[in-house]
Amino acid sequence: MRKRVEFEDDDGLLRRYSHHDDGGGLVEATAVVHPTARVEAGAYVDPGAHVHAHAHVGSQAWIDRLAVVGEHAVVGESAHVGPGAVVGSRARVGARARIGAAARLDRLAVVPPDTVVPAGAHVAGPARLTRSGPFGTAASAGAHAATTYS
Questions:
Q1: Distance from CA of residue 105 to its chain's centroid?
Q2: Does the structure show a pLDDT above 50 at 141?
């Protein structure tokens, strides 16, 4: 039998959380966490959020409502992934980083520890080389939209 924990949210709704089998973090009943994902003790996955296969959510991290953590992505200790934000597959969110609401992190994107990504921002993954023109010249794309605070 899985131990359940109940909380009243800001809207006065009773939310039921269960401990995830791998790591013991708390997962709300309407959230979807793949069985191969690890949710460390003290972490929370809120209503409607999705944590995909082989992802890792560090201790004390918070995956907010409707957020998505892609396959093999890592969310560091005490980090916050805001409501509706998307952390792409194999992306890395450093310890204590804050990902704003509806922000998007591309596949393989890296957000350093103690960084704030503003709401709605886009953080590109590593620059990709693309072929263009008749001679196959390469051009790179991608820009980062994050601020680090010391």
A1: 9
A2: no
List Cα–Cα distances, 90 to 32, 53, 93, in angstroms.
Answer: 18, 11, 10
Helices marked H in 10-137 — which ranges?
none
pLDDT at residue 148 greater than cutoff 70: no
Residue 56 has pLDDT above 80, yes or no: yes
- Looking at this protein, which amino acid is placed at residue 139? A
Alpha-carbon dihedral sign for residues 108, 118, 38, 78: positive
Cβ(85)–Cβ(99) below 8 Å: yes
Q: In what order do the strands lie in the sheet with 4-8?
A: 4-8, 14-19, 26-28, 44-45, 62-63, 80-81, 98-99, 115-117, 147-148
CA distance 92 to 57: 10
Backbone angles phi, psi at 56, to 5 degrees: -130, 125
Nearby residues of 113 by Cβ (< 8 Å), 6 or more positions away: 76, 94, 95, 96, 97
User: Looking up tokens 């992190």, which residue turns up?
Assistant: 105
